[in-house]
Design a protein that fits this description.
Four Helix Bundle (Hemerythrin (Met), subunit A), single chain, 4 helices, mainly alpha
């Protein structure tokens, strides 16, 4: 089953919308991490943490921000790939890469860049 032209337009619009949101999120993460020095990010009053645990908290915060930036970057790449698929081979958009069956519309509505019928394994 191929998606109708109005469905393809809808999913293209959703992908563009999701891409903009993901880029906004990514830019926010990058701005926070690069815009302030360590003292500002941690909210410390002085250059020296008042407790050794603060160093651990700061490290975890940095690692979490980096992890989130990586995840969102991958999501943007998946969205870009879905836009390419949709624009270059619209008849194949929404078809599971594993089974060749249509991806359920409910799944595409939630994850318009989905390439498979099921949740992909990490």
């Amino acid at each position: 089953m191929t998606l109708a032209p109005e469905q393809l337009k809808h999913f293209e619009s959703r992908l563009v919308e999701e891409r903009a949101y993901a880029l906004e999120t990514l830019n926010g993460i990058v701005d926070v991490e690069t815009g302030n020095d360590e003292q500002d990010r941690a909210g410390d009053i002085s250059k020296f943490p008042t407790h050794p645990a603060d160093l651990g908290t700061d490290t975890i915060d940095q690692e979490l921000a980096t992890s989130n930036a990586t995840r969102v970057s991958r999501e943007v790449a998946e969205i870009d790939a879905a836009l390419v698929r949709l624009r270059t081979a619209p008849a194949r958009f929404g078809i599971c890469e594993d089974t060749g069956k249509p991806i359920p519309l409910a799944r595409l509505e939630i994850i318009p860049w989905a390439r498979t019928c099921e949740r992909e394994k990490p």
